[in-house]
Specification:
The structure holds two protein chains of two kinds. Chain A is mostly beta strands. In chain A, 8% of the residues lie in helices and 43% in strands. The longest helix of chain B has 28 residues. Classes of the chains: A mainly beta, B mainly beta. Chains A and B meet through α1, β3, β13, α2 and α3 of A and α1, β3, β4, β12 and α2 of B.
Chain lengths: 592, 574
C-alpha cells in the first residue's frame, strides 16, 4: 500500500529534478563521460601545477559579483572524459584555481539571476571556451562578465477580473527572423501569487512572448463541466493564439512591468482513441503523449501524457482547440522500440475513434560514396535527426568498410547527416553540432578530409529536407566529397585589446536558414598565425564572413547573434568545391 | 547534448537513490493520519466507479458569505475509491454527479483561501464525512473557506543585499508518527531578483519561516570532491538563526497579511568527511554513502539537506559540503542481488573543519521469504498480482535508513524480500475486500512483533494470511443533553501500551458523518480496546503515546471478536 504512494512521489520528484537540472547552464559543460567509451575511468584525476585566477564582474557596472560559482573543466584524455572543478568567488569577486593540469581549460561563472553571455541558459547548449594552459603557468586576471538578467512582471486575471492565483507563467523567446519561439527555461517555474502577480527574473535580453498556463495539472476531469470549458494557454496581451501574441522586449538589468492580461476561456474537447499495441504488450506499458502543434514553436513540447488501458484504449481530456500530435511509445524487451503518431484537429467538440498505429522502427539503409560514385572506404558516421524533434531519433551508426550503413529504429520525419569518422576539434562542420563530433571521435582526432555533399533518396536530392522513413525500404545514397568548399584567410585583430583569438563565422545571408539544424552556418577558430579555415559549406551566392573577438563559436552561431553580426560582415560567394580567400579584421563581440 | 544527457543521467541516479529514501519516509508517515482504510488509488487506465448519487452545495467566503467562483470541490470515498471533482459556477455552486454512494469527504480549495473539508472546524482536524446512500442526492452542503493568510518579506545576504532564488518554506508543528514536529506547510516560494518572497493561503496559526539557498552545481550533486566551496549558506530561520530552537514564531491571524519578515541567510563553514566502508571478507564495497541530517531532511539535497557520494572501488568515500550538525552516514542495500546486498551506517557530527578516517562497517542484509494465503486455504480467492509485500521499520526514525523493502508476489503466491536491514514489521497491500489476518512465523503470530532480521540472516516460511472476515464498529457521539455531536473524534486504541507503536494497527480514529454515525471497519480483533470521543484532536495526535496515556483511564472498554459487528453509544465528556 505504501509502495504505490512512494512510487508516485518519486516520479513527481524526478520530474522536478529534471527541470531544475536542465535549467542550469553549468550542467551543459561538456563532460564527455560515457560508460561505453571510458576505459580508464578508474585512473586518478590529473593534477597539475598551473594556476588560473581572475574576477567575476558585473558586465554593466564593472563591479565585482560576490559568491558566483566559478567552474572549469579539466580534460582527462586517458580516461576519455572530463571533470568539473568549481569554486566560489569571494566577496571581491575574485577566484583562483590551483593545481590545474596543462591542457585546454574553459572557465565559466554563474550566479542565480545573472547570465553569462557565453552560456545563456535559454539558448541551445553552448560550448564553453577552451583556454590553453601550460604546465606551471600562472594565468591571472581572467575576467568573466555576468549580466544581471532582465525582468518581466505583471498580473494575470480571470474572466471576472479577479486575480488568477497559482497560474504557471511561460516565457517563450522569439527567435530573430521571426521564425518562431522557443521555451525559456528559467531557474524557477514562475507562478502567480495570491494577487495574480508574477515576476520573471534573470532573463537574457531579447524579445519574449509571455503566457499563462492555467490548470496545467488538472489531471482529473471527472466533472462534465470541467471537460467542456476551461482556460486556454493565454498569451500577452490576452490571446489564445501564439501568432497573435505580442512580444515583450527585455533588456539586461531592467524591469519590463505591466505585462498584465486576462485569461481566455475556450471550449475544451475530449479525445478518445486506441493505440494499436505491439505484440504481447499491455496498454499500461505504453506512453501516450499529446502535444499542441504550433508552427511558431521550434521546440517540441508535450502538453500531457496518458497511460492507455490494457486493451490500448485511452482518453485525453480538456484539450483546447488546436492541432495536436498524439504519440505512443513503448520499449519492448530486447530494446526494440515501437512508436506511432496521429495528428488530430480539435475544435471544441469531442473526438472518438482516434487510432494510433504502433510499429517497430523502420530500417534505413544506404551507402556512402565519393564524388565518382564509388564506395567510400573511410569510416563515416551517419545519423538521423528528427525534424523539430517530434519523432525519436535513432543512434548514429558507422559505415561498414564497403561504405554501406544500416540504421534501425527510425520513425517519422528525419534529416540525414553524415560526417567523417575522424574529426578535428575546432572545425565546425556545417549542420553538425560540435559536441556530436566530439562524441564520435574523442580519441582519434585528425583532419577531416571528407565532407557531406548530398543525400539522395530515389533520385531526389533530400540534403536539406526531412525524409519520411515510415514507408520503409528507405535506401539512401550519401555522397561525400574531398573537394569541399573552403573559405580561408588571415584575420587581423587588436592584440592589445583582446588576448583571446577571434572566431570567424561564415554564414548564409538568408536568416530563415539559420535555425538549427542548418548547413549554411560555419565557423572556425583562428590559429596562432591568424589564419582561419571554414570548410564544407554548400555553394551559394550570398554568404557573409565576419571575425569576432572574445566569443565562443557556438554562441556566435545563435540566430540572434548572426543577426547582430550581419551588418559587420563581408559578403562573399562560395563555389562548388571552391577555395576562397578573405581577409578579415576582427570586430568586438556585440554586447547586450 | 549527449554529454549533457549523460551527466544528467548520472545526476539523476544519485538523486533518485536519495529520493527513494525520502519517499519511504513520507510513505510511512501516511499511517499517522489515523485513517487505516486500505488506500485504493485507481491504477493507470482504471475507470472510477460510476453511480447515480449526487452531491450539491455552495462554496462561500467564510468572512463575507460571498460565493467563491471556480473553486475546486473534490469528493472522495475511501472505501469505494470513488474520487470526483467539480468546479463552482458563478454563484459558487457545485454539483458532483455519478457518485456510487458511500461516506464522502468533501474538500474545497481556491487559490488564496485555506483549503478545508466539509464540516472542518480547525486547520489540523478532519471534517465531517457526508453519508450518501447509493442513488441519493444531497443538497445544500455549504463549505465556508477562510481567506488565507500571507507571510511576506525579503531574504538578504551577509551584506544586506537581496538574495535571489532562495527557497522560503514556512513550517508549523504537526504530529508525525505520534511526535509533534515542525513540518513544512503550504507552497514554498523562491525569492525573486529583489529577494522578496510571499507565501500565501495559510491557515491562521504560528509559523516558523525558513530560508535556504541551493547553490546548485553538477559536481555538488555528483559528489565531486573538487567541486565544493568551504562555506555556504546554511538553512536559516527567521529572524536569522540556524538553530530551529532559536527561531521566532510568526503568528498570523485569520486572513492577515504579515509583511516585513526580512532576514539574512547565515554563512556556515562546510566540512568534508572522508572515510572508508568496510565490507565483510569476500564481498565488494560499493554504492553510495548518504549523509542524512539528524531530524530528517526538510531541505532536500542542498546544504543542510541530504548529501551523497559514491564509494570508490577501494571502499573509500569523500563527502564534502556538510553544514555543521549531526548526520547519519548510511550505505543502503544495493540492487536486486540475491543475497540482499550490504548496508551499514554510522553517526557523525561536524562543526566546520574536515573529518577523516570515518569508517562504516557494512553488514549483509537479511532476506525474508514466505507465501501469501487466504485463511480459508482456498486457492484463487485473489490474484497474486494484487498483493505486494513490504517491510515497515519498527522505529519511525529509521526509515531514511533501510527503508521499506518491498516485492511483488509470484504467481505461486510466494515472495522473497531482499535488502531488509533492521527490525521491521511485515505488511501487505490488500486486494479489495480482504484484510490482513496474521503474519505467522514458525506458527507464532508476528503481525505486531518487529522481526529482528539479523544481518545476513535468511528468514523463510513467513505466512501472510489474508481474510475476508471483517469487523465493524459503528455508533454515535452524544453530549450530556443527549444531542448528537458531529464535531468530535472517536479514538480506538489498545489498552496495552506496548502496542502504541507509530505503526500500530490497533490505533484508529473516526469522526461522525452527516448522519451522526462514526464507523470503523476491519479493526483487528482484540479483547482489550479502549474507546473515547474527544474534541479538537489534531491529525496524527492519536499516535502520541502521551496523549493515549492521558485518556486511557477515561476511555471505555471495547472488545471485538473476529467477524463481529458492534454498535456504540458514546458520551462526549467535557
Amino acid at each position: 500500500m505504501t509502495g504505490f504512494k512512494a512510487t508516485a512521489w518519486i516520479t513527481m520528484t524526478m520530474a522536478a529534478v529534471v527541470s531544475a537540472s536542465a535549467s542550469h547552464a553549468h550542467l551543459r559543460l561538456p563532460v564527455f563521460t560515457d560508460e561505453r567509451q571510458a576505459p580508464g575511468r578508474d585512473l586518478p584525476a590529473r593534477r597539475g601545477t598551473a594556476v588560473i585566477g581572475g574576477v567575476v564582474m558585473d558586465g554593466i557596472s564593472g563591479g565585482p559579483i560576490r559568491r558566483a560559482a566559478v567552474s572549469l573543466v579539466i580534460e582527462e584524455p586517458d580516461r576519455e572524459s572530463s571533470r568539473v572543478v568549481a569554486t566560489t568567488a569571494g566577496a571581491d569577486g575574485r577566484f583562483e584555481f590551483t593545481g590545474v593540469p596543462a591542457g585546454r581549460v574553459p572557465v565559466t561563472a554563474a550566479r542565480v539571476g545573472f547570465f553569462d553571455y557565453d552560456n545563456v541558459w535559454n539558448g541551445e547548449p553552448e560550448e564553453p571556451e577552451w583556454q590553453p594552459v601550460a604546465a606551471g603557468q600562472r594565468i591571472q586576471g581572467v575576467r568573466i562578465a555576468l549580466y544581471r538578467g532582465g525582468v518581466v512582471a505583471g498580473r494575470v486575471l480571470d474572466e471576472f477580473g479577479e486575480p488568477a492565483i497559482g497560474v504557471e507563467i511561460e516565457v517563450l523567446r522569439r527567435e530573430p527572423g521571426d521564425v518562431g519561439v522557443r521555451t525559456t527555461s528559467s531557474p524557477i517555474t514562475p507562478t502567480t501569487d495570491d494577487t495574480g502577480a508574477f515576476r520573471v527574473w534573470g532573463l537574457a535580453p531579447g524579445d519574449y512572448i509571455v503566457g499563462a498556463r492555467p490548470n496545467r495539472f488538472v489531471a482529473d476531469a471527472s466533472d462534465a463541466a470541467l471537460r467542456r470549458e476551461g482556460y486556454a494557454s493565454t498569451y500577452y496581451p490576452g490571446t489564445a493564439s501564439l501568432s497573435s501574441a505580442r512580444a515583450v522586449r527585455v533588456e539586461p538589468g531592467k524591469d519590463t512591468a505591466g505585462v498584465s492580461f486576462g485569461l481566455v476561456t475556450v471550449p475544451l474537447s475530449t479525445l478518445r482513441g486506441a493505440v494499436q499495441l505491439p505484440p504481447d504488450t499491455p496498454g499500461r506499458a505504453v506512453n501516450v503523449a499529446v502535444g499542441l502543434m504550433s508552427p511558431q514553436r521550434l521546440d517540441g513540447y508535450v502538453t500531457r501524457g496518458a497511460r492507455p488501458r490494457d486493451d490500448g484504449s485511452f482518453e485525453l481530456t480538456r484539450l483546447a482547440p488546436g492541432t495536436y500530435q498524439v504519440t505512443a511509445r513503448s520499449f519492448q524487451q530486447g530494446g526494440v522500440e515501437y512508436w506511432g503518431m496521429a495528428s488530430v484537429e480539435v475544435s471544441g467538440t469531442d473526438l472518438d475513434g482516434v487510432s494510433i498505429p504502433m510499429r517497430p522502427g523502420a530500417i534505413v539503409r544506404g551507402r556512402v560514396v565519393n564524388d565518382a560514385g564509388e564506395p567510400l572506404n573511410v569510416p563515416v558516421m551517419v545519423s538521423l535527426a528528427s525534424d523539430r524533434q517530434r519523432a525519436p531519433s535513432p543512434r548514429a551508426v558507422r559505415t561498414y568498410s564497403d561504405g554501406s550503413f544500416r540504421i534501425e529504429g527510425a520513425f517519422g520525419q528525419q534529416r540525414v547527416r553524415a560526417v567523417e569518422g575522424r574529426t578535428i576539434p575546432g572545425a565546425e562542420v556545417p549542420g553538425i553540432n560540435v559536441r556530436r563530433l566530439q562524441d564520435i571521435a574523442p580519441a582519434t582526432r585528425a583532419l577531416i578530409t571528407w565532407w557531406m555533399k548530398s543525400v539522395v533518396l530515389n533520385g531526389r536530392d533530400v540534403t536539406d529536407e526531412a525524409i519520411d522513413v515510415d514507408a520503409g525500404n528507405v535506401s539512401l545514397v550519401v555522397t561525400m566529397t574531398n573537394r569541399a568548399s573552403r573559405v580561408g584567410g588571415m584575420v587581423s585583430w587588436d592584440r592589445m585589446r583582446s588576448t583571446r583569438r577571434p572566431v570567424v563565422m561564415v554564414f548564409a545571408d538568408d536568416d530563415t536558414r539559420w535555425t538549427r539544424p542548418t548547413r549554411v552556418v560555419g565557423g572556425s577558430e583562428v590559429d596562432q598565425a591568424g589564419r582561419f579555415d571554414v570548410r564544407g559549406l554548400p555553394a551559394g551566392d550570398r554568404y557573409l564572413a565576419v571575425a569576432v573577438e572574445g566569443a565562443a563559436r557556438a554562441v556566435l552561431a545563435r540566430p540572434e547573434m548572426l543577426a547582430a553580426l550581419r551588418g559587420l560582415a563581408t559578403p562573399l560567394r562560395i563555389d562548388e568545391g571552391g577555395t576562397h580567400e578573405v581577409a578579415l579584421t576582427a570586430v568586438p563581440r556585440p554586447r547586450p | 547534448m549527449p554529454c549533457t544527457m549523460t551527466l544528467l543521467r548520472r545526476a539523476l541516479f544519485v538523486v533518485v537513490v536519495v529520493v527513494l529514501a525520502m519517499g519511504a519516509t513520507s510513505a510511512i508517515a501516511q499511517p499517522g493520519g489515523g485513517q487505516r482504510t486500505p488506500a485504493r488509488g485507481l491504477r493507470p487506465g482504471e475507470e472510477p466507479p460510476k453511480g447515480t448519487a449526487v452531491l450539491k452545495g455552495v462554496v462561500v467566503a467564510a468572512d463575507t458569505g460571498a460565493p467563491i467562483r471556480r473553486a475546486q470541490v473534490r469528493a472522495t470515498a475511501a472505501d469505494s475509491g470513488d474520487n470526483r471533482m467539480a468546479t463552482t459556477d458563478e454563484q459558487g455552486r457545485f454539483e458532483i454527479r455519478e457518485l456510487v454512494g458511500g461516506r464522502y469527504t468533501l474538500t474545497a480549495s481556491k487559490g488564496g483561501f485555506v483549503t478545508l473539508q466539509y464540516g472542518q472546524r480547525r486547520p489540523s482536524e478532519r471534517g465531517t464525512a457526508v453519508d450518501l446512500p447509493a442513488g441519493a442526492t444531497i443538497e445544500k452542503l455549504t463549505i465556508g473557506l477562510p481567506r488565507g493568510s500571507v507571510i511576506a518579506g525579503r531574504i538578504v545576504d551577509e551584506y544586506g543585499e537581496p538574495l535571489t532564488g532562495a527557497q522560503v518554506q514556512v513550517l508549523r508543528y504537526a504530529y508525525v508518527n505520534g511526535v509533534r514536529q515542525l513540518r513544512p506547510t503550504g507552497q514554498p516560494d523562491r525569492t525573486d531578483d529583489q529577494g522578496s518572497f510571499r507565501v500565501f493561503g495559510l491557515s491562521p496559526g504560528d509559523y516558523v519561516v525558513s530560508a535556504s539557498l541551493r547553490e546548485d552545481r553538477p559536481g555538488m550533486r555528483l559528489g565531486n570532491p573538487d567541486d565544493q566551496p568551504s562555506s555556504g549558506y546554511a538553512p536559516t530561520y527567521y529572524p536569522g538563526t540556524t538553530g530551529v530552537a532559536d527561531a521566532q514564531r510568526v503568528s498570523v491571524a485569520l486572513g492577515q497579511e504579515v509583511t516585513g519578515i526580512t532576514f539574512g541567510l547565515s554563512l556556515a563553514p562546510l566540512s568534508r568527511v572522508r572515510g572508508r566502508v568496510l565490507a565483510p571478507a569476500g564481498t565488494e564495497a560499493g554504492g553510495l554513502v548518504q549523509a542524512v541530517p539528524a531530524g530528517g531532511a526538510p531541505f532536500g539535497m542542498g546544504i543542510g539537506g541530504t548529501r551523497g557520494a559514491p564509494v570508490a572501488g577501494d571502499g573509500s568515500f569523500e563527502l564534502p559540503g556538510l553544514a555543521p550538525g549531526t548526520y547519519t552516514l548510511t550505505v543502503r542495500p544495493q540492487g536486486r542481488r540475491s543475497d540482499g546486498g550490504l548496508a551499514g551506517s554510522t553517526p557523525v557530527t561536524v562543526a566546520g573543519g574536515d573529518l577523516d578516517n570515518v569508517s562504516i562497517a557494512l553488514m549483509p542484509t537479511a532476506v525474508a521469504g514466505g507465501r501469501v494465503e487466504a485463511d480459508t486455504g482456498a486457492a484463487g480467492a485473489f490474484r497474486a498480482s494484487q498483493v505486494r509485500v513490504s517491510t515497515v521499520p519498527a522505529q519511525p526514525s529509521a526509515p531514511q535508513f533501510g527503508g521499506n523493502a518491498q516485492t511483488d508476489v509470484a504467481d505461486d503466491f510466494t515472495f522473497e524480500l531482499r535488502g531488509v536491514f533492521e527490525p521491521s514489521y511485515l505488511r501487505v497491500n490488500l486486494p479489495t475486500g480482504w484484510n490482513l489476518k496474521a503474519v505467522l512465523l514458525d506458527g507464532q503470530d508476528v503481525t505486531d512483533v518487529p522481526l529482528a532480521f539479523a544481518p545476513g540472516s535468511r528468514v523463510s516460511g513467513l505466512r501472510v494470511v489474508l481474510t475476508q472476515a471483517t469487523t465493524a464498529v459503528t455508533g454515535t457521539v452524544r453530549d450530556d443533553r443527549g444531542e448528537v455531536v458531529l464535531d468530535s473524534t472517536v479514538v480506538v486504541f489498545p489498552a496495552d501500551e506496548t502496542k502504541w507503536s507509530f505503526y500500530s494497527r490497533f490505533i484508529r480514529t473516526a469522526r461522525p458523518d452527516t448522519t451522526g454515525t462514526f464507523s470503523f471497519s476491519a479493526l483487528p480483533p482484540s479483547k482489550d480496546y479502549r474507546v473515547l470521543a474527544v474534541q479538537g484532536l489534531e491529525e496524527g495526535q492519536a499516535l502520541d503515546p502521551e496523549f493515549l496515556a492521558s485518556i486511557r483511564d477515561r476511555a471505555e472498554r471495547l472488545s471485538i471478536n473476529e467477524g463481529e459487528t458492534k454498535t456504540l453509544d458514546l458520551r462526549l465528556r467535557q
